[in-house]
Model the fold of this input.
Amino acid sequence: MAVTRAEKETELSELAGVFKGADAAILLDYKGINVPQVTELRRELRRAKAGYRVVKNTLARRALKGTTFETLTAHFQGTVAVAFTESDPVALAKTLTAFMKGVPTLRIKAAVVQGQAIKPAEVTDLANLPGKPELYARLLAVMQGPATNLVRVLSAVPRDLMSVLAQAERAF
Done:
């Protein structure tokens, strides 16, 4: 069944919307993985609030024009799938690297994170970073540190005074 021009234009506009709304995109060479593995990968990426699409190279090249992902144009050759996220690039990288351990035929071709092109090896470095929840927890701990120390200092004087009075009471 031939794909009509209207269907191609619809797919092109959907792809352009995906690229304009995405914060990170990772191109994958999916040659050698089977349908159950792709289904599992899609499930894992949905849990990470990410998406996965197998794209036609010419449509993807056209959809990339005018976006921050335009540097990926040269990598749309052969079998290409795009994993993308609008929110957390670290979660996307963690999910992909964890999945790639079980499926070694899946290979990263290129990636763009927040407008910067990164090498495939740097995606694993990105996966080793802490996720957003952990970073928020660390930031909160850093912000609470001075307030906690201030409370400790202010409460030390009355506590020490009470300790001295208690010892003086025992002595008499």
About this structure: Residues 162 and 168 are 10 Å apart (CA to CA).
